[in-house]
């Protein structure tokens, strides 16, 4: 673990900085300075200090909240209206700056709203810990912009996890809506372990245009990535989901021309791995796909509903299970599906199932071990 260097500990007063290319001033604040008074590692509630600093930044039109290394306690959720501002929260690193959701806090840590126009929110270099039931770690909503997703979110080097054991979890790590081109890089949402009877989610995003996930990893949740109302071009690169029931639930807006690219990743689903609908193009490349039923229900590795121009290349399907398993299920009017260079090692599974209106399906260069 990287040690706290102390570089960010020197409290500096809030300063005004000129935003490049514009006439708007922005605040540069360190949350531990005397004006706001957050104190790491003292066991007291730091939520008021964060709320005050973030509201000042949003009211000023934007800026950066610097959070030095240490542990910060949140006994309540911090709610901020972004007011169309450009806001950055920057820690010293996900291994040294930690926001702790205390055991009596069942609401989470941050809720960002936007009741104005376009805004940009960046969260980077910190961790959030649940302690028992933690609600939602990070919520990002734009309620006044529900039909026009123009707001941006970037998360870079952020971990969301349990403090200890199986009893600690967030119901949702990231809960967001109405986003334009959000980027998630090196983000780890994780529960201590899957909790029976609770539906926990890593990423839950509604009404999203052109999201990018790069080196993200959800684990021990009921659902890994749940994205609905998708538009534009969605990209998943080296982004994983393990120990989940539903690793990827991805539904596009019908007729929106949305595309989906997923490459160099693995997943392990208890009921299905990829459930996608209404995409005009899907490209899946080099996927290690595991399946293992926990409820005795039928398993589906891939379900494509009303999709077009689907390419699956270089996927390896693993694990023998004692329940019915269908590897690729094509539903509705899905058409022009090309399956190439895949290895089917799921003994006793049905490789391909398709509805009557499905057309244009081809399979080449695949290795079939389902009969062994």
What ranges have pLDDT less than 50 throughout 5 or more consecutive residues? Answer: 6-14, 17-23
Mean pLDDT across the residues is: 87
The CATH homology group name of the largest domain: Single-stranded right-handed beta-helix, Pectin lyase-like
Distance from N terminus to C terminus (CA atoms, Å) equals: 46 Å
From the alpha carbons, calculate the radius of gyration and give it in angstroms. 22 Å
Largest β-sheet summary: 21 strands, mixed
Please give the CATH architecture of the largest domain: 3 Solenoid
What is the count of structural domains? 2
CATH class of the largest domain: Mainly Beta
Distinct helical segment count? 1
Kindly estimate the percentage of residues that lie in beta strands according to DSSP. Answer: over 45%
Brief overview:
The chain folds into 2 domains: 1-204, Single-stranded right-handed beta-helix, Pectin lyase-like (Pectate Lyase C-like, 3 Solenoid); 222-372. It has one helix at 47-59, and strands at residues 15-18, 25-30, 62-66, 70-74, 78-81, 86-90, 97-101, 108-113, 120-130, 136-140, 152-162, 172-180, 183-189, 201-209, 212-214, 217-219, 223-231, 233-237, 240-244, 246-252, 259-269, 272-277, 281-291, 299-305, 308-313, 316-317, 325-331, 335-340, 343-344, 350-354, 359-364, 367-368.
Overview of the structural elements:
With 372 residues, the protein is mostly beta strands. The protein has 2 domains: 204 residues, Pectate Lyase C-like, CATH 2.160.20; 151 residues. Helices cover 3% and strands 52% of the residues. The strands form 2 sheets. It has a 21-stranded mixed beta sheet that branches. An 11-stranded parallel beta sheet has the order 5-8-10-12-14-17-20-22-24-27-30. The protein is elongated, with a radius of gyration of 22 Å.
């Amino acid at each position: 673990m990287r040690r706290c260097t102390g570089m960010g500990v020197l409290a500096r007063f809030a300063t005004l900085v000129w935003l490049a290319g514009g006439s708007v001033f922005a605040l540069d604040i360190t949350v531990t300075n005397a004006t706001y008074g957050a104190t790491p590692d003292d066991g007291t509630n730091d939520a008021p200090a964060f709320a005050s600093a973030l509201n000042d930044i949003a009211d000023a039109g934007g800026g950066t909240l610097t959070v030095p290394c240490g542990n910060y306690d949140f006994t309540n959720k911090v709610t901020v209206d972004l007011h169309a501002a450009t806001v950055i929260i920057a820690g010293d690193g996900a291994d040294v700056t930690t926001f702790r959701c205390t055991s009596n806090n069942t609401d989470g840590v941050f809720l960002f709203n936007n009741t104005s126009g376009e805004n940009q929110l960046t969260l980077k270099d910190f961790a959030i810990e649940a302690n028992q039931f933690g609600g939602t770690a990070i919520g990002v909503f734009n309620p006044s912009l529900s039909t026009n997703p123009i707001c941006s979110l970037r998360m870079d080097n952020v971990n969301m996890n349990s403090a200890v054991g199986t009893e600690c979890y967030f119901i949702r790590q990231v809960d967001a809506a109405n986003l334009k081109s959000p980027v998630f890089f090196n983000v780890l949402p994780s529960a201590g372990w899957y909790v029976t009877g609770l539906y926990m989610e890593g990423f839950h995003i509604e009404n999203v245009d052109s999201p990018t996930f790069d080196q993200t990893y959800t684990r021990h949740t009921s659902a890994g990535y749940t994205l609905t109302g998708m538009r534009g071009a969605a990209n998943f690169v080296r982004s994983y989901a393990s120990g989940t029931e539903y690793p990827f639930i991805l539904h596009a807006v019908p007729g929106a021309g949305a595309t989906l690219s997923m490459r160099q990743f693995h997943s392990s689903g208890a009921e299905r791995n990829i459930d996608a609908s209404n995409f005009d193009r899907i490209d899946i490349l080099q996927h290690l796909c595991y399946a293992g039923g926990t409820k005795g229900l039928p398993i589906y590795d891939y379900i494509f509903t009303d999709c077009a121009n689907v390419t699956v290349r270089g996927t390896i399907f693993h694990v023998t299970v004692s329940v019915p398993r269908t590897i690729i299920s094509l539903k509705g009017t899905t058409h022009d599906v090309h399956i190439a260079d895949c290895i089917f090692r799921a003994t006793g599974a049905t490789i391909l199932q398709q509805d009557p209106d499905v057309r244009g399906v081809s399979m080449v260069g695949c290795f079939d071990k389902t009969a062994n």
